[in-house]
């Protein structure tokens, strides 16, 4: 919150959002006050390369921490056997959908806040932030209902193994019904990131991940007097970690000074603000939710081969998160920079940010590709059963070629993700949606199904690089259209 002293009007300090008083100014017009500052927000002035790294590195670290959430449960659960790993893998698409709703809404809030900051419309930025926090609470409702009533139905649709269904139902019910902690914390993250504050979101994630890592073995296997709860224990550890992150984020949000102000007193929902948020947020939700649908579809295709094939896909998604999450973190840093400079009509800084972001994303994905080709066995051994020297032989037989083949999609995916971020930052979220539809629904599932008809599970994995290559071509075409119609007309100031 930003307190304003008596007898003065709030003014933001040079380049850091610190409130100052302007004696004798009774207008209360925050936009005019902001415009009178001699120093611009760092997103409009700092050297691009330094700015991208300063804003992205905390977010990249934060997303790596998020990847720990994705993989820690699976690592400990795999010690219980392949069925336990398959159960958590089948629950993963619903977890992905949950995160999609939270992150998608947060992306809409982030985009709107950063654009309004670029336009110097501080009141509108504040309004977007408050709306975002409350919309996060409302987003929890459908997952609460699903967790209470529909988990058994979902698990039975993808497995006929009683142990897999039972363990998966327990895990999913706990994660969904108590998901409010994760959803609201993500909204706080996106709000602060929109102002250029990337450090606190990183610390939020870190606090939760550390909690999860500590509690997982305690609740799964039973230590310190806690009963062994198996897969359900993994879910409880995850939820507790999420609530730790939430509590930390709310303390920071309401006790520290930020460039945006959350104000519930006299608050009323504004239709235009909600529309502006979901103009970007809803396509982003759909875009990410499509990933969940794709995961469900792939599970259905792979289940025709074996539960082990499903477990391999689950293991892949946990492993690839350590490659993709840094790129998503990079894009969290890119989005407010792109949105700010798009709002400020600064073509040079917009295009420079795109070039720097693309190069960094390609380097990250190239390293990931090399790792998946050189060390697939070592990566899969992470998911070995307790007492075993190596992962299940069938898991290795299916998983080694899977990791190598799927990793061919990493490089085209790198550029596609950066282009999608540009579309979201400029308020053109529908273009990101189009790309995601191609990547994860229109192309990959039909291709995977057709390849499954060969009777060889190895052939199914080729659907991933095929879908990414075609989608990249479309992404390039859409970005060139954006550039010709909107970017090229922006000013190019001398820096």
Fold and architecture overview:
This protein is mainly α and 495 residues long. The protein has one domain (40-487). The chain is 76% helix and 2% strand. It is built from 20 helices and 2 strands. The protein has a two-stranded antiparallel sheet. Helix 2 (48-78) packs parallel to helix 9 (199-222) and helix 8 (180-194) runs parallel beside helix 10 (230-255). The two termini are 34 Å apart.
In short:
By secondary structure, the chain is mostly helical. It has 20 helices and 2 strands. The chain has one domain (40-487).
Notable traits:
single chain, 495 residues, mainly alpha, two-stranded antiparallel ribbon, 2 strands, globular, disordered N terminus
What is the percent of helical residues?
Answer: over 70%
Shape: globular
Task: Give the low-pLDDT segments.
Answer: 1-28, 30-38
Order of helices and strands: EEHHHHHHHHHHHHHHHHHHHH
Tally the helices: 20
The side-by-side strand order for the widest beta sheet comes to 1-2
Structural class: mainly alpha
Number of strands: 2
Sheet having the most strands? 2 strands, antiparallel
* Strand portion: under 5%
Overall pLDDT: 81
How many domains? 1
Ends apart, CA distance between termini: 34 Å
Q: Give the C-alpha Rg.
A: 23 Å
Draw up the topology in text.
Blueprint: E1 8-12, E2 19-23, H1 30-35, H2 48-78, H3 82-118, H4 122-139, H5 141-149, H6 151-158, H7 162-177, H8 180-194, H9 199-222, H10 230-255, H11 271-303, H12 307-343, H13 347-374, H14 376-380, H15 393-406, H16 410-425, H17 429-442, H18 444-452, H19 457-460, H20 463-487
Antiparallel strand pairs: 1-2
Helix pairs in contact: 2-3, 2-9, 2-10, 2-12, 3-4, 3-7, 3-8, 3-11, 3-12, 4-8, 5-7, 6-7, 7-10, 8-9, 8-10, 9-10, 11-12, 11-17, 11-18, 12-13, 12-15, 12-16, 13-16, 16-17, 16-20, 17-20, 18-20
